[in-house]
Structure formats: C-alpha cells, structure tokens
Amino acid sequence: MTQLETAMGILTKTFDTYAGSEGKKDTLSKSEAKKMLEKELPGLLQATKNKEQVDQLLAGLDMNGDSEVDFSEFVVLVAALTCACHGRCAKK
Prior knowledge:
Layout: H1 3-19, E1 27-28, H2 30-40, H3 42-47, H4 51-61, E2 69-70, H5 71-91
Antiparallel strand pairs: 1-2
Helix pairs in contact: 1-2
C-alpha cells in the first residue's frame, strides 16, 4: 500500500476503535470523542489552556447537531488540524 492508502486505513481504524466502545458503532459519542482526543492527540489537549476550549472543539466536531461525531465530521477535524500543522511547519 502507498503512504496515503496506509494513512487512510489508519484514520478508519482509529475512528472505528473509539466509535465501537459504546453506543453506535458508526459514530463517536461525546465521551468517545474526548477519549479519542486524549489518546490520539495529547499534544493538542496539552496546548489547550482550559476545559471550555476542549468542550468547544468537541461541540464544533458535531456539524449536523445530532450530539454525535460521524466519520465525515471526524475526517474534517483531522484535515483541519493537518492543514494547521502544515502551515505552521512550513513557516519554520
């Protein structure tokens, strides 16, 4: 597999790992999303100064307002964070 195919597989597996721990298998509940952020993006949470920012991030993930994060919403988060990191890294 190519690097991009591997990355896509990792995204899918990561989402499925956390989405399958409680409730629906194809969405992340708020607690599943928080657990995923804590384990998979610890640097992001460490850079966040307060809990309200984390809650705002989690609320922002739920673009359709159904109180869950589906795979499309998850991918948008990863893409947005990747763009932010790419822009920051390109300036160094």
